Amino acid sequence: MNVQIFKSKQEVGKAAATDAARIIRQAIAERGRAYLIAATGASQFEFLDALVQEPDIDWTKTTFFHLDEYVGLPESHPASFRKYLKERIVNLVHPGMFNFVNGDAPDPASECRRVGDLISSCTIDAAFVGIGENGHLAFNDPPADFETEEPYVVVELDEACRRQQIGEGWFSSLEEVPREAISMSIRQILKSANILCIVPDMRKAKAVKDSLEGEVGPSHPASALQQHPHTTIYLDTDSASLLSEPPQMFR
Question: Exposed, middle or buried by CB within 10 Å (0-12, 13-18, 19+), for 234?
């Protein structure tokens, strides 16, 4: 696991986008197509803004998979992750394929199987993820299921996760935040050849410390990243502030 620390979230986003673009170009050159996983949330703003501006990427040769989505939330809702991804990726660079999770599908379990079958046939070149304030990876809140081999699962969102969504401005009250989501599983995320984890902001500092320095286990879901050989964690000085021995890798 490689940890990089930058002075601002803009620098975090640019560095991660530069690395992501390199991986995408290489995958297209070697295999003719790049397979990617895209996350959402406020932590990804600067990264996605920089990524869609990277030059010399044939986006028609990319296939994206959606990391997670609320159960029962229509795409028209301001907090819809489908809406987020269409506005920040699809409408700007027009990927060859974007496999969305339909959160308001009539049967969430069937939807998990549908997108699970799609991703199971692909080798993912890069997953773009974050870490939640409660340490979640995707919507796998603690205690997360580290054992399931299912690519996508229906999960219950804990209160800390739901309150984060209010804090980021997606909802105005706890009652509005859905209690369930469809999430890519921990083991499916770890199947990615490369994981780029973008985690700026002071509010993520404790989760970063627990995930990077604590024991690997379900109580800190993002700690699973410690087990992946090609994970890069992109932090700013705020999110890295509680680390015992921050790497001296300022850019």
Answer: buried
